[in-house]
Amino acid sequence: MASTEETVETGDGAVRETPERLRRLPSRLLSMAAADADRVVGAGLAAEDARKWHYAVLASLREFGPASQADLSRRTGIYRSDMVGLLNELAERGFVERAPDPADRRRNVITLTAQGRHRLERLDELQADLQDQVLTPLSPAERELLVELLLRLREHHERGVPDAWDA
């Protein structure tokens, strides 16, 4: 496994050295790679007047169909308190419609509109390009392996397995 550079020259000519034990910490590398990816994806989506949460809601509605705000919150990991404002943005743009649930008039059902489907298709294309930017140094096989390894890590931690500090 290749390690990252031992020294990095910053824009002002200074040299930043990172200790080997830090450069080889998987958790640190995951955090730094996630921050880099978030920066690339966030900037790319912003250029299209979108945010990652817009994409998450539209993708969830497309895959699972109409849903309550609570269901969307659970599926996307977006806090319920943030979901209302996000849905307001998407509704104002004509990407989703909000209507009372016929089974329970106290809650709303959110539906993806035709315009929202078109927006999602555009964002899917953009996401593919952005993922290519993030993963440029990796081959297709390495990208697939990375996804499989990250899925395995996420599944492990989502099961609520106690960590070493709890033992």
TrEMBL record:
The keyword Heme does not apply. The keyword DNA-binding applies. Signal peptide: none annotated. Residues 19-155 form the HTH marR-type domain. Keywords: DNA-binding. PROSITE patterns: HTH_MARR_2. One of its GO terms (biological process) is response to stress. GO terms for molecular function: DNA binding; DNA-binding transcription factor activity. Residues 1-20 are annotated as: Disordered. InterPro entries: HTH_MarR-typ, MarR/SlyA-like, WH-like_DNA-bd_sf, WH_DNA-bd_sf. SUPFAM superfamilies: Winged helix' DNA-binding domain. PANTHER family: HTH-TYPE TRANSCRIPTIONAL REPRESSOR YETL, TRANSCRIPTIONAL REGULATOR, MARR FAMILY. This is DNA-binding MarR family transcriptional regulator.
